[in-house]
Design goal:
Helix content is about 65%, strand content about 0%. It has eleven helices and no strands. Helix 2 (about 40-50) crosses helix 5 (about 75-90) and helix 7 (about 125-135) packs across helix 8 (about 140-155).
């Protein structure tokens, strides 16, 4: 997903979908399609679009303060999108058992990322060990797993932000629920937290005057 510029009048985001290489082997193509199948599309689409990245970024760009428009933390950005994947399941968005299964697989994949991020950069885990873990525990096809691990090696500490960010937003939602009492609503929480854009969740909590 590529967002519109912070000060652009065009609010169009671009969602890239990479199709299998027509010159690649049929085995690799089938492996990619088995994991990125029809039933996985709802989770990916809402992560990247609504109510995930695109909504968060556009709401941030509506803010008057420049800091909220242009400053972002990976924990807040990726955490919000992963939070949305789970929240939408809680709200009944996924229609079939297959869609629900893939949402759980995606959540498991982000949990395994924590182990790999720490392992690759601080525990001496090898490239092949990381690939094997994704194949065995997160059920990725090997070509997908290899591409994932190359990304993890290039961006240390980024992959852990998904699961950590989701945890922080869930904690923030609970604090908001306690503070709101009988006036609590999920939409009110989302409206309040989205005004902070991609700022660190700790700053959103501070600005919303919520306890830890």
């Amino acid at each position: 997903y590529q967002s519109p510029g912070a000060y652009s009048r065009d609010r169009t985001g671009i969602f890239y979908v990479t199709t299998p290489d027509s010159e690649g082997s049929s085995e690799d193509s089938n492996g990619l399609l088995r994991y990125h199948c029809y039933y996985g599309l709802p989770t990916t689409a809402l992560h990247e679009g609504y109510p995930g990245h695109h909504l968060q970024i556009l709401t941030a760009q509506d803010q008057q303060r420049d800091v909220r428009r242009i400053i972002s933390s990976p924990v807040a950005v990726e955490g919000w999108a992963l939070y949305c994947e789970v929240m939408m399941g809680e709200e009944g968005f996924y229609r079939s058992l297959e869609e629900k299964l893939f949402q759980k697989v995606h959540l498991l994949w982000r949990a395994v990322r924590v182990i790999l991020d720490v392992g690759l950069h601080t525990r001496g885990m090898t490239f092949e060990e990381a690939v094997d873990l994704l194949v065995d525990k997160a059920y990725l096809e090997r070509p997908n797993a290899e591409a994932e691990v190359r990304r993890y090696c290039a961006y240390p500490a980024y992959q852990i932000c998904y699961a950590v960010g989701r945890r922080e937003f869930r904690s923030l939602r609970e604090a908001f629920r306690r503070a709101s009492g009988s006036d609590y609503s999920l939409s009110a929480f989302h409206s309040a937290v989205l005004e902070y854009g991609g700022l660190p969740v700790s700053l959103s909590r501070w600005g919303m005057e919520l306890d830890q």
